[in-house]
């Protein structure tokens, strides 16, 4: 009986082992440049400029031909605005090297504190970010449709303190499932 129990246990563990896989480690990449707190703070000080626009995803073929329909960010979707410092620029370079399940670029919790959040306010994916200063900014949001989630992001420049910049937030870095 003891031998039979051991055999059953061995067989059960063998078959269970066939379906259990060790999770591979994901390499986390962060910028090496020090985050510029003073510069980011100055850009986030209140100004009179604003960015307004539309967040959407538009399917394209590998050669750039539009396919499918536009999917707009849903009301309540968050649009993040970061001052485009050298830290964020390095992050974007690292982000272009992301590889599903292998490498992931992230920013520090400190850098993540220096952002402004706005929300999409209608079914057309429209958003407004008021009271901005002169400078370059990185915008990012997610657009979901059914089970697909698309990241849309881009860089916007404000050249004068009273400027109102219209921007279509539609560039996709990657698709998540």
- CATH architecture heading: Sandwich
**H/E element sequence:** HEHEEEHEHEEEEEE
Low-confidence parts? 173-177
The CATH homologous superfamily name equals Immunoglobulins
Please give the share of residues in helix. 10-25%
Instruction: Give the CATH topology.
Output: Immunoglobulin-like
Specify the overall morphology: extended
Helix count from the secondary structure assignment: 4
Main pleated sheet: 5 strands, antiparallel
Give the overall pLDDT as a whole number.
84
What's the total number of strands? 11
Task: Quickly give the structural class.
Answer: alpha+beta
Q: DSSP strand (E) fraction?
A: 35-45%
Question: What is the straight-line distance between the termini?
Answer: 49 Å
The gyration radius over C-alpha positions equals 22 Å
Describe how the helices and strands are arranged.
Elements: H1 2-19, E1 27-29, H2 37-44, E2 49-60, E3 66-72, E4 78-83, H3 86-95, E5 103-105, H4 109-113, E6 116-119, E7 126-132, E8 135-145, E9 148-158, E10 164-169, E11 172-176
Parallel strand pairs: 1-5, 2-10
Antiparallel strand pairs: 2-3, 2-7, 4-6, 4-8, 8-9, 9-11
Provide key terms for this protein.
5-stranded antiparallel β-sheet, 4-stranded mixed β-sheet, 42% strand, alpha+beta, 4 helices, Immunoglobulin-like
